[in-house]
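Troubleshooting: if your tokenizer reports a length mismatch, compare your output against this known-good record of 270 residues.
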Amino acid sequence: MASVGFVKKDIGDLTHMDKDLKKFNKDGTELNLTPKIDRSRQGNYYQKYLEDSSRFDPSPDDLKCELQLQALGVFEPLNFLVDYGKFKKEILPYADKWVPYLRREGISNDREGLLLMGLEGDSPSDSLSMPEARKRAGRKLSETEFSTPTQLYKDLTCLHPILDFFQPLGRTMLVKVNAGGWFPPHKDWPMLTRDTFRIVIFIGSKVDNETYEWEMEGKRWPIKQNRAYYIDTRKTHRTHSWTDGSIHCVVNVPKTWENVIKLMSMTRYV
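Known-good structure output:
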């Protein structure tokens, strides 16, 4: 069989092709792989509590904010819609700047991203996921440390009405999940002491139920194109794309009482 693209060698069967796609990006560049996650360590909150109990002791503000957030659904639509025509024009200069998102060793998973809010000096193509950012910084990081707008943030004025409303923000990024791309079932720091809550904006025409699945609490949640949602990502959730170019913006909003009230004020249904 003739060689295929970047592989630069004959491919005997799909198994060999799959192995190569676990090591190389679609353009032939070698992936900067992250080791597979140690799930026994990640979910061992008791061990983490023994190591540093301060991370688990909720403050009065934590309790106040979390109690108020319980008034919302786990997948709550917000009163904000992206102007998709404007987004397409503003994202066009970044068409070749998308970078692989947290590719792990031995796993083929076609996800890409661009950074809107990062660490000081970050570009839109710098580390998007927390494991990659911690590796680059050489230390533990919190979501709220990603408080510097990148050039992409400045250029995507179509998102400013909602993003500027909550400034200063934490780590915020565009995630593009291509056909077959997925996020496994997981929780995003489910403790009362989380320092941010998450808003997700589903952008474009490839994010509805037929093309992109967001499953939480045992059901697939209906998604309206270009709408923003508050999503309680402390709950177990997983996602999967059936097509190329499913884009969503993940916004980490610092969990302050003022921001909780702002969120309550922009729900779709009052």
